[in-house]
């Protein structure tokens, strides 16, 4: 898999540092509260676990699965809800954890879904933010790294369900997905 990577952007150690920093920020911001953490499957699970290890507050956790890439390298523009949240969110403080925010369409869809469900407060945490790709006006409250407008994989991010298990985030060689 390493041979398919053009360049490593963020090492295992850098990602661990970002998770620790964000975990401490969340601990400070949610002191005395019990938020519901919602991890976006499948990509955000690695980051969610590492952030939660550094988050020193009582919390509940749930998962949502949405899809907009459908195996490609760009968002299709259509967001599909694959797995709904099982927890009652009415009146809850929500921390939504994403792997990457690119166009923002998926995040906008999920935030609207949570608002419709009666969430009290919604904050967004993401490992990677790609502002150059944004087509809707939405921002994260907690960001690990700003990422260039490249196709990245690793640490939960995939191409055709592959590369998620790389311990770092890297730019995938275009030859891999231009076959």
From TrEMBL:
Pathway: Purine metabolism; GMP biosynthesis via salvage pathway; GMP from guanine: step 1/1; Purine metabolism; IMP biosynthesis via salvage pathway; IMP from hypoxanthine: step 1/1. One of its GO terms (cellular component) is cytosol. It is found in: Cytoplasm. Residues 13-159 form the Phosphoribosyltransferase domain. Purine salvage pathway enzyme that catalyzes the transfer of the ribosyl-5-phosphate group from 5-phospho-alpha-D-ribose 1-diphosphate (PRPP) to the N9 position of the 6-oxopurines hypoxanthine and guanine to form the corresponding ribonucleotides IMP (inosine 5'-monophosphate) and GMP (guanosine 5'-monophosphate), with the release of PPi. Belongs to the purine/pyrimidine phosphoribosyltransferase family. This is Hypoxanthine phosphoribosyltransferase. It comes from Paucilactobacillus nenjiangensis. The lineage of its organism: Bacteria, Bacillati, Bacillota, Bacilli, Lactobacillales. The gene is hpt.
């Amino acid at each position: 898999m390493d041979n398919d990577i053009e360049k490593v952007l963020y090492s295992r150690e850098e990602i661990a540092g970002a998770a620790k920093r964000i975990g401490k920020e969340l601990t400070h911001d949610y002191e005395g509260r019990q938020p519901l953490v919602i991890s976006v499957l499948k990509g955000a699970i690695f980051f969610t676990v590492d952030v939660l290890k550094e988050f020193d507050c009582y919390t509940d956790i749930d998962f949502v699965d949405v899809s907009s890439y459908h195996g490609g390298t760009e968002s299709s523009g259509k967001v599909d809800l694959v797995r709904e949240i099982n927890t009652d969110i009415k009146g809850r403080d929500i921390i939504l954890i994403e792997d990457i925010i690119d166009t923002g369409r998926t995040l906008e869809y999920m935030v609207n879904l949570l608002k419709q469900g009666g969430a009290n407060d919604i904050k967004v945490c993401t490992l990677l933010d790609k502002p150059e790709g944004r087509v809707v006006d939405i921002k994260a409250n907690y960001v690990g790294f700003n990422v260039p407008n490249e196709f990245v994989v690793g640490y939960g991010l995939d191409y055709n369900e592959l590369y998620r298990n790389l311990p770092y985030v890297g730019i995938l060689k275009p030859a891999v997905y231009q076959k």
